[in-house]
Every structure is written in C-alpha cells, then in structure tokens.
Amino acid sequence: MPHKLLPVLLTVVSTLIPPFARAQSAPDAPVRVGVAGLTHGHVGWILGRGERGDIVVVGIAEADRELAARYAAEYGFSLDLVYESVEEMLEATRPEAVTAFNDVAAHLPTVEAAARQGVHVMVEKPLHFSLDAARRMKAVADSAGIHLLTNYETTWYPTTAHAHEIVRSGELGVLRKIVVRDGHPGPSEIGVGPEFLEWLTDPARNGGGALVDFGCYGANLITWLLDGERPLSVTALTQTLKPDLYPDVDDEATILLEYVSAQGIIQASWNWPFSRKDMEVYGTAGYVLADNDVDLRVRLVGGAASGSVDEAGDMDGANLRGSETVRALQLDRDVPEHLRDPFAYLTAVVRGQVDPRGSLSSIEVNMVVVEILDAALRSAREGITVVLEE
Which end of the chain is more exposed for a tag (fewer CB within 10 A), N or C? Predict the structure, then answer.
C-alpha cells in the first residue's frame, strides 16, 4: 500500500475546514472521517492511502501522544488533528464516519460514542470477540440508524469475489466443505509495533491470540459463502506452542463448523513458516482454490457422463471419471474502486450508493462471525463442542 504519502488535506484540514454536521455535506464532497486509535498495525492502510478525493481525515483519537507523534512523523500529518479521546474528537471535528483502529475490546465504547453523534463506523476486523458486546454494538447502531461495518483484508481480494461468483453460478454444485487458512509466523516474529503486540497478546483486549486474530477471516468468508447460514455447532482446539512469547493466549487454533449439509474448517496460526491467506471451496461438482489475492484454481466435473446433481445435492449416477475442467487464473484488480478499497467502500455506503446488507462487511454476516468466535473460545476453554442456540 502507499507509504509516507498522506494527503496534504490531512495536514491542514483542521484550519481550512471548520467542523460541521454531516447533514451539511454535499453528496459529492469527500466523506469526513475520524480515526479512532493508532494502536492497530493496519492503521497505515488509511494513513498511507494518499489523496484520492473520496475521504478526508478530520481527526484522530489517540491518548498515547508519543505514538501519535511517531505516526505524524512517518505519515506527515499535524498533531493538531490528534485528540485524547473518541468523544473529544467527535465533538471537535463532527465526522460523518469513524474508522476504528484500536484494540478489539475498545470497539464497543467506540461504537457507543459514535452512535450518540449519529456517526457511521467501520471497525478493523473482527467486530468483537464477545457475542454480548457485539449485540450491544448492533443495538446502539440500529437505534441510531448508523451503518456498522467490519473491514477485512480478504474482502478486497479479487479471488474472494471471483470464488463467490463461481459458487453463486452453481458450477460447484452443492457446497460440502470450505477450508480457510490464515496467519503468519507470529506477531512478535514479524516485528509488529509494541503498541499492537501489547493488546494482541492480552486476552482481555483481543479475546484470544491466533484464534481471534486470524480465525475471524475464515468465519467471515465461510458465513458469506453460505449466504449467512449459522453453524449448528462449533468445536475448537487451541494450543500455545510458544509460551515464552505468548504465555497468555493461543498461537495455534483449529475451528470446526458443522452445518446442515457442509463443514467449515478454519486454521488460524501464528506458527506458519510464512504469511498466508488462502481458501478452498469444495462442492459436489468441483472445487475452487484461492491461493492468494490474485491466483485462483478451479476444477470441475463436466459433461453429462459425470452425472447430475439433484435437489438434495446427491450425484445421480455420477461417474467422477468423466471430463474435468481445470482453470488457473491470475486475476487483475480492474474492478470498481469501492470493491477493492475499504475506504472507497465506506464512502459509497455513507453516500447511499451501496447497500452493505449481506456483504462481507455487513453487520448481518459479522454477527454470525462473532457468534462463531465466541463459541470457539468457549469450546477451546472448556474442551467441548458448543451447540448454537436456535
């Protein structure tokens, strides 16, 4: 992503653009955005985005002045934009939307503060790790009539969108198994900032370790590919393989999801030898393998000789030795901006140009994600399979 290229508007906005209510903004004006927190390592996504004319950062809430100064030096914004709290930033700058780059536990008070001002919110993944907290977030957002979105890196992968298109086309038949693997060698090993590492490894602020940090990706993708279906049960196994580095949280997690006619397998790890975000989608008529953001492989059982899929999803007289199709695709990023950039998407939602319902970012999908994470944490803690309430 762009680095060290914060828009000029960011450095002067506090003096050139006085605070005003979002109702006064022209439909084609840049969306006024506040940043809640600088402790999430992904905050460079917005600070280093460059000037595109769709958003303008009007304020940043960060109590750690030293941290704020470090980012100001790196990205070139004025410390005049930095406020002690979300509440102070909201009152002083009147943004139309807030992007939350604080710890996961702080998402609830951030949304509560924004809702009181009628300000839309996009949190960095996950929405939360506690189902009770997520329900409170949804309740205040619904009451205030604001959008509450969750941002994942994989949402903007061309392979994610293309895999979804193939699933919707019916080419794969009935889905039977989805496997999602996410992670890296570990936050300490890859050198994340100390402010990020501090809360990533604090169960009170992150809920867990790798299970929450990377398990949320799989829960998000599987839920979306299954049209929002909730699993029947959740079973999780976690381990701490590097207790010297991560004594309080897991660094290895596997989550098994049972559905009416399919299984979901989530492998989240701080022990991979390299960073990875890949996905496998299996149906009764083929599979899709998304190796990364642009490389996709598709294999289909083709031709009448291979049988047909009935309404129950069973292969009728199937001959799996029939003709097969293998497609290796390297997808480009020539798609609309709001489908490949989270802040362009946020702009489109705030301006009423895009309906987020049912999307990877939507509250509907992400409430199921939190339900899965909440159940997985309990499953791992108690050594049981958690059956979800109807």
Answer: C
Q: Is the pTM of this model over 0.85?
A: yes
- 180 with 87, same domain? no
Take residue 267 and report the two structure tokens written for it: 């492998």
Q: Chunked in runs of 10, what are the mean pLDDT values of the chain (390 residues)?
A: 35 31 62 98 93 93 98 96 98 98 98 98 98 98 98 96 96 98 98 97 98 98 98 98 98 98 98 98 97 95 43 40 74 81 97 96 98 98 96
Taking the mean position of all CA atoms in its chain, how far away is CA 357? Answer: 15
Q: How many CB atoms are located within 10 Å of the residue 139 CB?
A: 13
Give yes or no: residues 121 and 147 share one domain. yes
Domain that holds residue 52: 8-154+341-360
Read off the amino acid at residue 96: E
Q: Which residues of 37-70 are buried (b: 16+ CB within 10 A; e: fewer)?
A: bbbbbebbbbbbbeeeebbbbbbbbbeeeebbee
Pairs from 312-316 (Cβ < 8 Å, separation ≥ 24):
313/173, 313/174, 313/176, 313/261, 313/284, 314/284, 315/284
Q: Is residue 1 domain-resident?
A: no
User: What are the distances in angstroms from CA 217 to CA 11, 160, 221?
Assistant: 34, 12, 6
Torsion angles phi and psi, residue 241, rounded to 5:
-85, -15
Q: Which two tokens stand for residue 110?
A: 């951030």
